[in-house]
Design goal:
The protein has 274 residues and is mainly α. It folds into two domains: 83 residues, Alpha Horseshoe (Leucine-rich Repeat Variant); 128 residues, Alpha Horseshoe (Leucine-rich Repeat Variant). The chain contains 16 helices and no strands. Helix 5 runs antiparallel to helix 6, helix 12 runs parallel beside helix 14 and helix 14 packs parallel to helix 16. The longest helix has 27 residues. The radius of gyration is 40 Å and the shape is elongated.
Length: 274
């Protein structure tokens, strides 16, 4: 019996080593690349998670700002309007036009500027808005921020308005030289108010291209138009204008004569100090 024990011990040791080898093989196999037991779920889920995160990151900024226009805080709405204007995208037009009707004047003010930044895509909606008496003032001012020939006729049309003539004039002055030709074309308009406002606008724009047409208006039958033309020529500052208004020192209207005397005196003083 003493001879059998060593043999049994040896067989037991061999079985133990074989068991260890099998266990090691099993563990190694569990780490084979591509094994779905440990890595399959990660491989499948990671791209989906990354896509979801990316979509969240690139969520349309315009939509975010449009949503902020509904915020109860006027300061938040104001910043959203400014941001939409800076984006300058056509999709910003409709919400910005609505912002012209905001309950807070500070939001409405920046909406005017923002629509000017968007530019031509805003013209048609703004022209439609001029039909609303409540929102016409803001719409006219916004149109004046846009350098597009389509804005000229609607603005000139409003020169006939008692309530909004000054707003239309301001808008045409904002446009500047591109509006001169259209303003000159209405200097002979049958509507007296249109003529007066056109003269005022041309004087404020101070474009030399309006010089001759304004000199012609010094002969207008309306005393206020003559006076306004003289003041406009003073603003342009061309010497031809100075000579042209001198005959008004003998004008039939006393107010015109007195005003022209002051204009010429101021003109002479500036020439002396120059």
């Amino acid at each position: 019996m003493s001879n059998d024990r060593p043999q049994l011990d040896e067989e037991s040791s061999l079985q133990t080593e074989e068991h260890k080898d099998q266990l090691a093989d099993h563990v190694s196999e569990s780490f084979v690349p591509g094994d779905t037991a440990l890595t399959g779920d990660q491989t499948t889920n990671e791209p989906a998670q990354e896509t979801a995160l990316e979509e969240e990151r690139i969520k349309d900024e315009i939509e975010i700002q449009i949503d902020l226009l509904k915020d109860p805080d006027w300061a938040v709405r104001r910043e959203a309007v400014i941001t939409l204007g800076e984006m300058g995208d056509e999709r910003c037009v409709e919400p910005l036009v609505k912002a012209l009707q905001d309950g807070d004047w500070q939001v409405r003010e920046v909406a005017i500027e923002a629509l000017g930044m968007v530019g031509s895509p805003a013209v048609d909606p703004l022209i439609k808005l001029t039909r609303s008496w409540d929102h016409r003032k803001a719409a006219l001012r916004a149109l004046g921020k846009i350098k597009d020939e389509r804005v000229l006729d609607p603005l000139v049309h409003q020169l006939r308005s008692d309530e909004f003539a000054e707003d239309a004039t301001d808008a045409l002055v904002d446009i500047g030289s591109p509006a001169v030709q259209k303003l000159v074309s209405v200097l002979g308009d049958k509507d007296e108010n249109t003529r007066k406002q056109a003269v005022i606008a041309l004087g404020r724009i101070q474009d030399p291209a309006a010089l001759d047409p304004l000199i012609e208006k010094l002969k207008d039958k309306d005393w206020f138009t003559r006076l306004t033309a003289a003041a406009a020529l003073e603003k342009i500052g061309d010497e031809r204008g100075r000579e042209a208004i001198k005959p008004l020192l003998k004008d039939s209207d006393t107010v015109v004569k007195m005003r022209v005397e002051r204009i010429l005196a101021a003109w002479k003083k500036r020439a002396t100090n120059a």
